[in-house]
Design goal:
It is a single chain. The protein has a 5-stranded mixed sheet with strand order 1-2-3-4-5, with helices on one face. The chain is α+β, with helices and mostly antiparallel strands. About 15% of the residues lie in helices and about 25% in strands. The protein has one domain. The protein is globular, with a radius of gyration of 13 Å.
Length: about 100
């Protein structure tokens, strides 16, 4: 499943352009802080396997007003590099590769 262009951003990591996005609204679990903030990354030119990154922070717009940390381009860049080392293949056409960030 491709990431929509609207609401997403581009980032270049080691010469490759990726598209990334944070979901516009929290899921029910994220709103109640049962699940942390997540974001998705894919290859911009040839979308394939999506990288789903789970952070250790609540969403900033959670319903309990708990403090959260935003996703920054640096976070995305570090996540892409970690996922590639862990075996993410962005040109592969199947499934989702999941990565969990620790702090």
């Amino acid at each position: 499943m491709a990431i929509p262009r609207k609401g997403s951003r581009l980032i270049t990591v080691d010469g490759t352009v990726y598209r990334w996005a944070v979901r516009a609204k929290p899921t029910y679990d994220q709103g109640l802080n049962w699940r942390p903030l997540t974001f998705a990354v894919e290859h911009a030119a040839a979308p394939g396997q999506v990288l789903s990154v789970e952070t250790s922070s609540p969403r900033q717009d959670n319903w309990l007003s708990l403090p959260g940390t935003p996703v920054t381009p640096l976070t995305v860049e570090q996540s892409v590099r970690a996922a590639l080392v862990a075996g993410w293949q962005p040109n592969r056409s199947d499934g989702v590769f999941r990565l969990t960030l620790e702090n």
